[in-house]
Amino acid sequence: MDEAIRKLDEFIGKSVSPFHTVKTAIEQLEKKGFHELKINRVWQIEEKSSYYVNIYDSSFMAFTVGNMENAKDALRIVSAHTDFPCIKLKPHADIYDNRYHKLNAEVYGGAILNTWLDRPLSVAGKITYRGDDIFSPRQELVNIDEPVLTIPNLAIHMNRDVNKGVALNKQKDMLPVCGIVEDELNRQDFIKTILSKYGSEEDVLSYELYVYQWENGDIIGVNGDMFSSPRLDNITSVKAAVEAIINSGVRDGINMIVCFDNEEIGSRTKQGAGSNILPMLLEKIFISLGYGREEYIDYILSGFMISADVAHAIHPASPEKNDITNKPYLNGGTAIKIAASQSYANDAGAVAVIKELSKQSQSDVQIFVNRSDMPGGSTLGSITSSLLPMRTIDVGVPILAMHSARELMGVKDQQNIEKLLTCFFT
Ligand SMILES: [Zn+2]
Fold first, then answer.
1. How far is CA 83 from the centre of its chain?
2. How far is the CA of 109 from the centre of ligand 1 (A)?
3. Cα of 111 to ligand 1 centre, how many Å?
4. Which one of 165, 216, 331, 408 has the largest count of C-beta atoms within 10 Å of its C-beta?
């Protein structure tokens, strides 16, 4: 297996909820000597050092500070998102019905619902327990890491029109089954069993538990040139960002990666890209380094951000869904995303920078544009660049089946984006 893909598969296997994406990234950053800065403390930042900040457990930033004298106006940022479409358990989730033990749940983000049926699923997330201080409850991350749930399809004999397309009801059809109840008297609540993992039942106060696709990724193709995996959107970008900041060393000026939660539900949360959190934390860095407000603003105005998120490769059965002259191929390189609507952040100057970086890093890039009669998606690039007005460009790994429980990419494209982002930081 290609080394970049093997490491990506490992990273995705651990990134089973946004909390776990952050945990996985921070473990790698700590191993490479990045020091933690607490979000709500006074920072003492030194030049030639590396830091990370845990932002409410489901977002994070990491940055290196080199010589600031030599590097006037050198702020470079890579952004990505830690979340992915999935199913989220509701409070009081246990349901007993027709001898089935089911869990009440809601859909998080724009998942392709039918891809979640008939698969081994598991549960991960955060549980809060009573602590010594009301405002600081004890928190534990949990990952069951066994295929304890599934959502069974309805047989074709009971739904003859199934191959014409079926509208799945999110409340009725998307509730995972976790067991069969044979003994009503001795049945055991699934949720209670998970919750009692790190504390007594009476101490449990709340939880945020995600249902995730349990299987790992697989290399596909007679020549092994594709990689099928859950959560390619957007762990490909998170992993590439972490890899880039770790491998580029400490450059003069500031290199930063910031990975936000809640992109799949619109980014408007305290830890999302639509929050003021990034400008605030950036300002803390400049205050700590002894700069005034105008210098901080100057750094932003002359900074450059790459917003990394996946793009749509041309589809084998529906090539007409892509643009007619800009066709991104699997293994064709990192897609530069362009939209007149600015649903992707871009301008000619920023595209030029990426093309030159691609040449310098000997990594391939290609252009993605939506068909003119299709609105396409949006990313956090346009949101962050309106809050932090610096040149910003959207790029990402081209994939198929975006928002399926399993997505598909070319094996060369992880290396392509990692080379590009590392070069950006060097
Ligand atoms: Zn995405």
1. 4
2. 10
3. 11
4. 408
* CATH number of the domain located at residue range(s) 3-84+231-424 in this protein: 3.40.630.10
Q: Which fold has domain 86-213?
A: Aminopeptidase i, Domain 2 (2.30.250)
pTM for the model stands at 0.96
For 74-83, how does the pLDDT look when each residue is reduced to its tens digit (9 = 90+)? 899 999 999 9
Q: How many residues does the chain have?
A: 426
pLDDT of 207 reads 94
How many angstroms separate the alpha carbon of residue 37 from the centre of ligand 1? 27
pLDDT at 319: 96
The residue among 156, 17, 169, 172 whose CA lies nearest residue 102 is 172
- Determine the distance separating the centroid of ligand 1 and the alpha carbon of 389, expressed in angstroms: 21
Distances in Å between the alpha carbon of 239 and those of 77, 135, 296, 312? 15, 33, 28, 19
- Tokens at 345, concatenated: 């952040």
Task: Answer whether residue 61 shows pLDDT above 90.
Answer: yes
User: What average pLDDT score do residues 202-217 get?
Assistant: 95
Distance 81 CA to ligand 1 centre (A): 7
| Cα 310 to ligand 1 centre (Å) | 6
Give the confidence band of 72 by pLDDT, cuts at 50, 70, 90: low
